[in-house]
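WARN no homologs supplied; continuing
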Amino acid sequence: METALAQSPKRDDARAISQDFGPVGRILASRYFVDVRFPSEAESELARLSDKGFVVHVMRTTAWVNYLYLSWALIKRGLPPIRAVVNLRRWFTRPWRKTAQRGDFDVRFTYARRQRGSALVFLKKSAIGTARGKATREDPFPALVALTRKSDRPVFLVPELFVWEKWHQRLQPGIVDFLFGSPEAPGFLHSVLAFWRNYRRAQFRIGEPIDLQRFIAEHPNEPDAAIARKVRGALHHHLARETRAVFGPPHKRWDRVIDEAMRDRLLRQTLEEIAPATHRRLDSLLSEARRDLKSIAARPSATVVGLAVPVLHWVLNRIYDGIEVDEAGLERAIKAAVRAPIVLCPSHKSHIDYLVMSYVLWRRGYSVPLVAAGANLSFFPLGPFFRRGGAFFLRRSFKGDKVYTAAFKAYIKKLVRDGVHQEFFLEGGRSRSGKLLMPKLGMLTWEVDAVLEGARNDLHFVPIAIDYEKVVESRHYSRELAGAEKKPEDIRSLLSAPKVLTSHYGRIHLRFEEPISLREFMRGRGLAAEDGITDDQKKALVRALGNRIMHGIYRVSTITPHALVSAALLAHRGRGISARELSERIGLLRQIAEEESAPLSATLTNSPSDPTVIGPIQDAIRNFVDDQMIRSEEVKGEVIYTTEEERRLELSFYKNTLINLMAPRSLVANALIASGPAASERDVKERALFLSRLFKFEFVYRVGVPFDALFTEALERLVRLGLVLRGDQGLDVAPESHSRPLLTFLADLLRDYLESYRVAALTLQDLAKARSMDQKTFVKAALETGRAEYLARRILALEALSRPLLENAVLYLLDQKMLTADAKKLRLGPAAQDRTGGAGLAGRIDSFLSR
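OK structure emitted
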């Protein structure tokens, strides 16, 4: 089901394993150990440390299965095997024959080094009557310090975590924990049974290594015993952080979280200010805040998630071909969680998004985050289920409700203070168009506020792209794009499940961008939480952070075969397009994606762009043909592809998933073609700047990079592609026969955007006659204007009649003072009145369309 985008481990050295392991060990290895996840990054790090010095593996609590697995994993990967062990009882398996378990520590470690092996140390041991484990009698660290002082080669202490069961640390251990050990300090029976139940989800992790040689140098005047105590404490600290990164903080009941949120100082202060202003008693406001928190708070249950995952696994296997997971990116995110809590920020194109992240994390042994969900999903019976699966609910609008706002902010602050990993969709709602929406900054503001108010020193925001070859809701989206009302989610939505389960939706792609440290991001802007920042500085910070996260999502968005095919088809102005021309266009898009280091679907690796040759491009076309979105006909020996006009809006969803990547080149291509032959670079830049400002609510560019730099970069890349020629007379289309068609193709990728904004400008004439309209009525009027323009063939792209595009055009018109908003009514602004109802803007857009 799931495909890992990471380096695969080395092949088994069967002979070495047979020499070290007896029959019991070999049976366990062949049947169980191979399923344990051992990240390639961990393997590389251990190999690097082993090349430089002597590696001592350090684990929290004695567990025979941990020792046996690590012995096998190291031999399998050609890493130095364990040849010395501390604090582990003897057992019936062959590794003991080559491993020093008894005797003086210096003898054991010297033996391990001479055998070119490594050592393993357990810090605590399990015992009946204690759930946390207890200290061991053997303390090897003074001996390791002394050994390091005498050696030229460094000694590396590597804290390691072997995750083989779902564990939410409890504040109060249960009776079973005292009898058989807890997940933190499992007894023998506990560890073996837990491993057999969960080995398919188990994983091996390493923390930050300690260079003992350097550690000693940093404490030159301290005795070995003191250094040994500090090293042991540091290892406990590293293991605790690694454990928290995987499992999250100790589990608290939801009602305790609410009680602690109610004690928030700022919540209390806000309610005390509201009371006299509204003539209400403080205890009444406190009761209202508690009710609000109950409606908001998640009630996470590992049992509910554990029961749901097998069902979800069956559903996802039935309707999808698999999930391509960026394992290296996921590992970076978990590493960031060691340093500070993480906030996962995925793209939002489908309701499946709510399930994918939790499913992938659970299957890899991680605790699932708490997920912010719209209150419209809290309907019975799914609402209580989602809440126990980790969802907390928020209203779409808080405006005017100061108590609810203060309560929600206190809840977010409590999650941040406790170090709970969170997930929320920065876009707010699902994208119906396929293009990422502009960030909604409410949740992000409260996360930043929590850090600024001292709940934590830092947060790490992780941009995540969840991409689909086909989305379950595409038919619903196309109707909403054309102007139909959005349907609220309710029990009737469940009745359509049988239709979904009989359909096929290709692959899901999950990729992670580099985590963004809030503290580092602030430092880059010359800000520090401890110094205090003004409201204006905070607003600018949140806006820049939101754009940075969205740009990060764009950077790791996967280019799918369906996106390439739809973009190549929809940017064609003729009736049909030949297979040869379609192949050229797809090849150009792939070349641009490679230049930008944009991730391509794994199926596209070394695959043909020719749609007539077997491969993922042909498969995507076949899917579109089967869905009656395009037609394929052979005429005079040539294959011609034609889009079904009434399905262009649905097809545009897939094109829009890559449009932000192509936008800079498309803007410059439009500007160059509109400027005419031998255009000066200055003229082309001015036209491109106009388009960039026109689409300021559509595309997100690199934060902090000025337009001039982006323009120069895009122009240079068009020159390198051989589509633009820089001559003494100025800029021009390259003379090769293929250059103008391909440059026109790049320009036409934005044709629907240009035509949609032109329609919005023309609708200003209707507003002038009506004097005022609400935004909904204005968009409906624009859709009617657009239909008239389309039937008169004054616009060519039916997908231009898209409600989200027209709504963004309204934002642009408001920004340019061509519209004003007063009491939810739109009226002509001073700029539109000066330009006779927007005809000037429509005419300027026409200059890019009349080619």
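The longest helix spans residues 224-247.
OK
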